[in-house]
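Write out the 3D structure for:
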Amino acid sequence: MTAVADPRLPSAPQAPAEALPPGVSWGTARTVLRLHRTALAFWMLVLVGLSGCVVWLGTVTADDERAALEACDRAGQDMCDMMATRFSNGMDLIGLFLTYSCLAVAAFAGGALIGREMESGTAHLSWTQGITPVRWLTAKLAVPALVLTASTGALVLAYRWAWNGNRDLLYYGWMGDAFTARGPAAVAYVLCALALGALSGFLLRRTLPALAAAVTVTGVLSFVMAQYRDHLWPTVTSTSTTNGYPHIPDAAWQVENGALVHGRRVANFESWLCDGSATEMRRCLDDLGVTGYYASYHPESHYWPLQLVETGILLAVTVLATAAVFRLVRRRTA
C-alpha cells in the first residue's frame, strides 16, 4: 500500500532557497555546519570575545587612559604618554590576530574541511548518496565563506570604530597590522586562505600534507603582499636643496630617501661622508654632484587606494584557486 499525503494537512515550512548560493540546499548546509560545528563554535567564540574586547578598549579603557593623561599633565609630570599603553597594546594584539587569522583558516580548509574527507573517502561516499561532486564542493566552500565574511567583517567594523575614535592614544600609524585590520583586505585574506586550503586538500588528498601546504602557501602570500605593499600605488616624492631635508607630512609612510646626484636618485645616501664645516661640507657635496635630497612616501590619503588594490589582488587569487578546485573536481569525477 502506498501512503498518500492528505492535501488538507499543512506542509512543513521550507527555508527560502534564495538565502543560500545556487546549488546549495539547506539540508546540505546543515550537514556542513554539523560536521564542523566544533571549529565553527571556536571561531565564533574567539571573534565574539575579540569584538567585546574592542568595544571595551574603545570605551572604558580609552576613557580611563585619557583621564590619567589629563591628570598627569595637570600635575606637570614628565613622560605622561608612557602611562597610556593598554589601549594601544590591546589594539595591536587584535590587529595582529586579524592579520594572521588567515593561517588558521588555511589550516582548517586544507586539513579538516577537504583533506580529511578526501583521505578517509567520506567525500566519495557522499557523491554516491545523491549529491553531485560540484554541489558537495559548493556547499563545502559557500557555507564557511558566508560565516567567515560575516564574522570577520563585523570584527573589522568594530576595530575601525575603536581605532578612528581614539587615534590620540595610538602609538603606531595606519600601517602595520592596523592596515589589514581596518579594511576589506582582512576579509579577502580569510576567503583567499579558504580557497587555497581547499585547493591543497584536493591536490594532496591527505590531511597533514594538505594542512601544511595550505598554511605555507597562505603565509608566503601574506609575506609577499606585506613586502611589496608600498609598490601597489604610486608614491609621492618631496625634494629639497642641500640646505635642508624634504618635508614629509605627519603620519606619512616613508618608503625611500636619499640624495639627488647629477639629477639621479641615489637611495640611502650616506650624508656623513661629507663632514666638517659648512664650507667644507658644501665643497664635498659639490664634488660628489649632490644637488639636493629627496624622500618618497605614502601620505595617509593613500590608505584606501593601497587597501583596495591589495583586496583586489587577494580576491583575484581567491577566484583562480576556487576555479582550479572546481575544474579539478570535474576532471577527477568525470
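Residues 236-301 form one domain.
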